[in-house]
Write a structure and sequence with these properties.
Blueprint lengths: L7 E8 L2 E4 L7 H17 L6 E2 L1 H17 L18 E8 L2 H9 L2 H8 L5 E3 L5
Parallel strand pairs: 2-5, 3-5
Antiparallel strand pairs: 1-2, 1-4
């Protein structure tokens, strides 16, 4: 059996007090922890509060990551789908690479994506990866 490189699609949603990085059923706890750790490390190094994980954001992002994977297309979702009244703001980051750290680096090198990750108004995050 031939080995192929692991390719990851990562979607990130940001909800007021929330940042979400895409979820899919293939996402392992270790992958999710790595992505959240990278985000929280960036925030902590700048004196911004860490984000806590939110299962509702994991689910929303996960559905989108799976859709991007299935369609082989990187795109933004309709953020208002499934949003509850308690959310006050939404944003989204999507990325594609061979590793979580590469996706994170790419997002941090983009001013708009970096602003989502570092927004001090957010306090929740959900993470998932579609392979």
């Amino acid at each position: 059996m031939r080995s192929r490189p692991l390719r990851l699609a990562l979607a990130a949603l940001v909800a007021l007090l929330a940042v979400v990085v895409a979820a899919c059923d293939e996402t392992t706890d270790a992958q999710r922890s790595q992505a959240i750790g990278l985000i929280n490390s960036e925030r902590s190094s700048r004196g911004i509060a860490k984000l806590s994980q939110a299962s509702d954001l994991n689910a929303k992002a996960g559905n989108w990551a799976a859709k991007m994977r299935d369609e082989c297309k990187l795109s933004h979702s309709k953020l208002s789908d499934g949003v509850t009244l308690s959310w006050r703001a939404l944003g989204e980051n999507v990325g594609y690479s061979s590793s979580i750290s590469k996706i994170h680096t790419n997002l941090m090198n983009s001013s708009g994506h970096r602003a989502n990750i570092l927004n001090s108004s957010y306090d929740r995050v959900g993470v998932g990866i579609a392979t």
